Amino acid sequence: MIDTASCARLPQRLCNKRQCHRRLTWKQSSCRYWILGHEYKIGVTEIFANMFGRLLNLFKPNHAEAESQVPLPQAPFEYIATHGAQAAETMEKARETEGAFPVLLGDRSAFVQTLDLMSTDGISFESTLAAGLSLDPELWMKDQVDSDPEHFDFRNTKLGRAYKVLPLTAARNGGFGDGFKKEVFIGLLPVSHGWQVPALLGLGGWNACPEAHVHVAFFRRWQERYGAEVTSVAYDVVEFKVSRPPSTAEEALALAREHYIYCTDFDLGASGIGGLAAHLLNSPSWYFWWD
To answer: Considering the entire predicted model, what is its pTM?
Structure first.
């Protein structure tokens, strides 16, 4: 039968009241449409799903709007809220601010978690710095390897297949996604050097993430050796911009061992330490993540 009733129930992309009509074929659970002389077919279930979906959208909460109404976090330092795509440019301009070291602190969730760590750390900035300066990274790594020699068996390793790490992944959706987060926070931290950042933020001390003073020791070591400057501390993510990365396979393999002992949550995959070393070779970006 031909039904010439209103087409209001049809998806708009298929409906033109002046130039379409439909034939219901209930046995086939489908509808046929003729639009500008062309025949289209759509399941009846899709029609009702379309109607139900539009009804649900009327009651769907607007999370973006709700989040924008939440007061900004209270922090013991100045910070800037910006779009993820503008993070690099904003940080570069912030470097001109005297007495402030810009660090990307991630999205609102990561920022709040970092602030929570600061409030519960209970260890002063000065004492954490002192502990970090007195720590010998070589001895610390030896203790870690001696505690689990099978896990840290680095014999017969060669360069593997390199992978790419984008800079400032804490500003991107899903970390390595193509899109940027709508809102990220850049802390203007009152420190003189990047290696002092972990002491100020109370970084680490949970799961396999080392204590803050250990981060201080390694940040300082890598800044002196490789020109590695911390760019992101987004709760469980740490990133560096590197001006003097290793330039030989031997140097890259040695550094890869350091990175893995420091951050055992690395997913090395099939390439193992060799894959990490291949990435570090001449790479201007370093990335760490703890589970």
So the answer is: 0.75
